[in-house]
Amino acid sequence: MRKNIILYALLATMLGTTLVSCQSDDTDMDEIIAMYQVEPAAVELDFSELTELPDVPVTDEADSAYNDYVENSPWNKVISIAFDGEEATISGSVPGVSIQRNGAHLTIMNMSGPVKFIISGKTTNGSLKFYGDKRFQVLLNGAEISNPNGAAINNQGSKTFYVVLADGTVNRLQDGETYTMVDEEDQKAALFSEGQIVFSGHGELSVIAVGRGGIRSDDYIRIRPGVKLYVNSSALDGLRANDGITVDGGVVNIETTGDGAKGVRSGGLMTVNGGRVIALCAGNTRITTEDNVTDTASCAGLYCDSLLIVKAGTLMFKATGDGGKGINSKHNVNIQGGSLTAVATGTSKVKKPKGIKIDGNFDISGGYCYSYSRRSDPLEVAGTLQVATGYKTYDRTPKVITIAY
Q: Residue 243: which residues within 8 A CB-CB, separation 6 or more?
């Protein structure tokens, strides 16, 4: 640490001398500062295969996660839907399930308990909307659905919505720039659900959002091993859940460019047990004024309103917009294992960019944590910073902090 102090003292002296000389010439100070700037660790999208342990379903019915496993429900009621341009072919029927059709826009009422809907084919003017108080499964089997006037898939039910990606398939959902709204109904993303969403399977799903968010649940979201998700949102948040997010595994890549947009946003407890989640956020600070009150919101790779617990897996977040944060937590953060990288390279015209900003406490007892901020503190903790003994690296400079076990 003494070497770092000496280094920064020398840098300050050199820059001070340069500033005096610059009063009489046209030297570019940005170039001079860049010469001494520390470059951050690389944070890039990674679609490569991830080796994961077998995903073993919970079998104890008393376990709170029992209903999150699609394997624990019977799926003997099946309806297949094949999109083809402006039309959709429906195969199979189930008592208690009705489907209304408007071209390739389907409205499904499910009052029959667990039903599997197998979705395939392509439409550039279609959608799926679900009603009902029963849990159901959507098996995406090579489906491409674009809705120019709203969400591609909209679940208005409050029960578990299983999104299963058929093994080896590539699937795609896209919303429209302008949403046609229905009174007293939400559709906040290209893939939206009032109830919880559980992702499983060994396929791929791309979600392109141009009107609102990418994937959003007004309940919670769970991502299981084997899943591959890519979200690109030019409007709002990439992946958002009001009541929490659990990442057990899988590969998740997210890009957002909207002002103030978050890559991942969790309103409740967020737990990471494995997998790889990467989010790149390029939006600037969003400035809104209402009733003469101005509000500002910066982008963030990860934004948590509640406790964040990382037990395993890889998390990488980068914010390049004005005031952006790699991680912005309104509660406590607990790192027990895994790897966490947060980078902020944006300007500070409206808000200050930070690698990691925590309004609560920060406890780390294992794994790896790296945070970088080009123009502000790499780590800001309003509460207490507790670093457990046994670390191999604990290095802090004005731009970078690294803690490794």
A: 196, 217, 218, 219, 220, 267, 268
Distances, alpha carbon 363 to alpha carbons 89, 225, 244, 267, in Å? 54, 26, 20, 20
Residue 180 is which amino acid?
Answer: T
Single out the residue of 252, 131, 253, 122 nearest to residue 199, CA to CA: 252
What is the C-alpha to C-alpha distance for residues 284 and 258, in angstroms, rounded to an integer?
Answer: 7
382 Cβ neighbours under 8 A, 6+ residues apart: 358, 359, 360
Distance of CA 317 to CAs 168, 292, 326, 340, Å? 27, 34, 5, 8
Strand partners, 229: 205, 252
Is the pTM for the entire model greater than 0.70?
yes
Per the model's pLDDT, the better-predicted residue between 316 and 377 turns out to be 316
Whether 323 contacts 300, CB under 8 Å: no
SS3 state of residue 75: coil
- Selection from 266, 262, 315, 314 nearest residue 285 by Cα: 262
What's the full length of the chain, in residues? 405
CA dihedral over 94, 201, 211, 186, signed as positive or negative: positive
> What are the two backbone dihedrals, phi and then psi, of residue 398, each rounded to the nearest 5 degrees?
-60, -20
Place of tokens 């000496």: 6
The average pLDDT across 44-63 equals 95
Which H, E and C letters describe 108-147, residue by residue? EEECCCCEEEEEEEEECCEEEEEECCCCEEEEEEEEEEEC
Is residue 224 pLDDT above 60, yes or no?
A: yes
